[in-house]
Amino acid sequence: MRAFRYERARDPRAAVAALTATDGARYLGGGTNLVDLMKLGVEHPGLLVDVSGLPHGSVEPTPPGGLLIGAAVRNSDLAADQVVRDRYPVLSQALLSGASPQLRNAATIGGNLLQRTRCLYFQDVAKPCNKRLPGSGCPAREGVHRDLAVLGSSEHCVATHPSDMAVALAALDARVHVLGAAGPRTLAIDELYRLPGDRPDLDTVLEHGDLITHVELPEVPEARRSAYRKVRDRASYSFALVSVAAALQVAEGRVRRVRLAFGGVAHKPWRARIAERRLLGGPAGEPEFVAALDAELARAEPLRDNAFKVPMLRHVAVRVLAGLAAGRPGTAARPNGDGEDR
């Protein structure tokens, strides 16, 4: 690891000023991803600005009936929050399915949103990677890509976004509060992330110096009946091959409200809006769920070794929707243990 300077931010604006003034500087929250990347030589910031002590460590109700979550809140604390467990179980389950208990105790909400891909080529500085070094190539397309994207990729990058939490936040239409050099602004989470295109090195639309301060959840009545399901290679600790975040409200056998997002299959959390439109107002039955998923996944462009993700994702999403329609949202999230997918 190369030498670097360390500063502990006194307040949010001082943090933004310090980072904006230094090329290549990085914010440090829990450090669970950034420090790993520094050890691998992927990241080598000259300055770390520690934002873990800023006043962004609480979960508060908002007047419209939602929640305002500080960026410094720990993943484990948010998963255990009783309001989140009762009103947004999909979010609690997603948090508990990510990483290990030790990592969840250290990782922050802001850092979780901005973690980098786990593509092997991105993490190995001896190999080309357009995400790490634009223009150097993407050997993953013809190489090891079993875990990589089947939706929204480009010839320049087939990496996937690793966060479980962000998939649940995408389904919930969360908004991200950002403080930048020009002042505060708010982004829909769908606006925060970008597809790779010809600039896969850019994961988000954030500018250098932008600091995520909060995540805002709107009131989502149908989220009380919601679930997160993750399929991975090992139960204890692994990133998603595919994952599904869903909320469903059914009245008189027909879909009244539905939310659906996928993880492990694209450069960003993938909101399945085509499937949602197909389902809305129609019968809440398994044939309709399959048809809606087929319509969404018609855009999939799998590579040689990851075509299995398409039927796997269809199956998982149909099972989750069928469970919600039948009033079986899934195993309750457990704050001190692993997620529901053992």
UniProtKB/TrEMBL annotation:
The keyword Oxidoreductase applies. InterPro entries: CO_DH_flav_C, CO_DH_flav_C_dom_sf, Diverse_Substr_Oxidored, FAD-bd_PCMH, FAD-bd_PCMH-like_sf, FAD-bd_PCMH_sub1, FAD-bd_PCMH_sub2, Mopterin_DH_FAD-bd. This is Xanthine dehydrogenase family protein subunit M. Pfam families: CO_deh_flav_C, FAD_binding_5. Gene3D superfamilies: 3.30.465.10, CO dehydrogenase flavoprotein, C-terminal domain, Uridine Diphospho-n-acetylenolpyruvylglucosamine Reductase, domain 2. It comes from Streptomyces pactum. Keywords: Oxidoreductase. PANTHER family: OXIDOREDUCTASE, XANTHINE DEHYDROGENASE SUBUNIT C-RELATED. Signal peptide: none annotated. Residues 1-222 form the FAD-binding PCMH-type domain. Coiled coil: none annotated.
